[in-house]
Amino acid sequence: ITHQGAYNDPFYILVKGECVGYRKSLIDGDGSTQCGRWKGFGFWNERVLVFDSPADTSVAAVGFVETHAMNGSEMRNLLRRFPSGYKRTKKLVMSRLWRMGFSPSSLVHAIRRIERAMEQEAADVQARQQRLANKKA
Length: 137
Description:
It is elongated and about 75 Å long. The protein has a three-stranded antiparallel sheet with strand order 4-1-6. Strands 3-2-5 form a three-stranded antiparallel sheet, with no helix packed on it. The protein is α+β, with helices and mostly antiparallel strands. The chain is built from three helices and six strands. Helices cover 42% and strands 24% of the residues.
């Protein structure tokens, strides 16, 4: 239904059926992990209600599903007419993005892992240089 990274995907509301959400691993780039399951009712791509951004999750149907799809820019314009609703929606989206930002497969963790690998490589180079200096002495 939705592919991670796709632009202009609408906001979806699941009415009937079952869907499964997957997110690609940003750490190693291989495979994906299940990040959500909706049965009977659910929604995804809620970030388009606040930001014009690509989909953060791939969603697949498990059998027959019925959904309502709403264009992101039109929904943003509609929500802005109701400040309290827009404020609540923005709070929901930001809290979900915050939680996702600290998930094990997030970009933050990928950067930390790269930094640790670089530190280890620098330590290995320093150890090799020390061994060479000891051999010369």
